[in-house]
Amino acid sequence: MIEHVKQLREETGASIGEIRSALAEAGQDIARAREILKAKLGAIADRKADRAVKAGVVDAYLHGNGRIGALIEVHCETDFVARNPKFREFAHDIAMHVAAMAPADREALERQEFIRDPGRTVGDLIREAVGTFGENIRIGNFARFEL
Questions:
Q1: Burial of 55 (0-12, 13-18, 19+ CB in 10 A)
Q2: What CA–CA distance (Å, rounded) separates 80 from 88?
Q3: With helix as H, strand as E and coil as C, how does 87-124 read?
Q4: Which residue from 11, 20, 24, 105 has the fewest beta carbons nearer than 10 Å?
């Protein structure tokens, strides 16, 4: 049970209470609990979608060879979340995705499969982050550079 909680916490970032509840509802089936958590985090994102985003971070990603890079704005509601190392890691992952996949715009970005987990779209990742951090999160401007 503890291993399941730890695994789901790492995968989803959901609270331990939410994970325990999902596991109980799923009869300890980790795959089913994962789906329950995905639905819960998505519902949280839907409820928070209209909230203003006044804080955030700008992140940069440079590919190892220095010939490809990306800059991205990731907005959230409070400076408290913007300073969270997990939020900054989230922003960096999105910047890396932009560098790798060269989306044309935000809509295209959100529809793309995430490069680190092809089973989820970037939009799924954003909705999960909203559930994890408890704030509305939006992708702002982004740019990709290549020599």
A1: middle
A2: 12
A3: HHHHHHHHHHHHHHHCCCCHHHHHHCEECCEEEEEHHH
A4: 105
What is the C-alpha to C-alpha distance for residues 64 and 48, in angstroms, rounded to an integer?
36
Burial class of 22 by CB neighbour count within 10 A (0 to 12, 13 to 18, 19+): buried
* In the block, residue with structure tokens 């490809």: 68
Give yes or no for residue 146 having a pLDDT over 80.
yes
Question: What 8-state DSSP symbol labels residue 61?
Answer: E
| Complete domains list, the chain, with CATH | 2-48 (1.10.8), 55-146 (3.30.479.20)
Position 13 confidence tier, pLDDT thresholds 50, 70, 90: low
SS3 45: helix
